[in-house]
Design goal:
It is built from six helices and eight strands. The chain is an alpha+beta fold.
Amino acid sequence: MLTRFATELASITDAVGGAGPPTDIERVVLRDGSSMVIRPLATGDEAAIASWFAGLAAETRYARFFAVLKQLNRRTQSELARVDHLDHEAIAAVAPDGSTVGIARYIRGSKLTSAEVAVAVGDAWRGRGIARTLLDRVATRARAAGIEQFIATCLANNYTVIRLLSQLGPTTVGPSDAGLVVLRIDLTSADRAASGPSGGRCD
């Protein structure tokens, strides 16, 4: 007889056509005791992108895309689902009902050892440690792919995301420009819980 978790994994794998080796799919217990399935986003999984975007409130969408968006156009949705698990990786958090509630991703830049990183979690699921879990997983995959630095653009007042990103490694925060700041995060340091971002404010 399948356990509930095994049933969830089977249904998720069937739905996305397989997101990778079984070891890439894991169940995590959140701060409040609830559980979540963490998996790499499958290439072309636009349904997961749509599910994730639907759970983001207007303010959260603006913080992620720096634009007022009521919906994602097909081109953007397709681009976000075009992962190759090397130069473009995305890790998703899936709720027990099958909805995608959080995604963290990196996209490698022209400098092969550097990549842009971003994360957003549905408003109903925030505060449970999902963003930190996703960022940890995506950073691990980035290091394995030879990426040494993450670059992130954030709203200058998005202190929560700035703090979460700075926990991945020694971080420098550039000066605010038009309400945005650029973070540069060193992924090579053994001291990932560094003293916090320098050159800017995070709390």
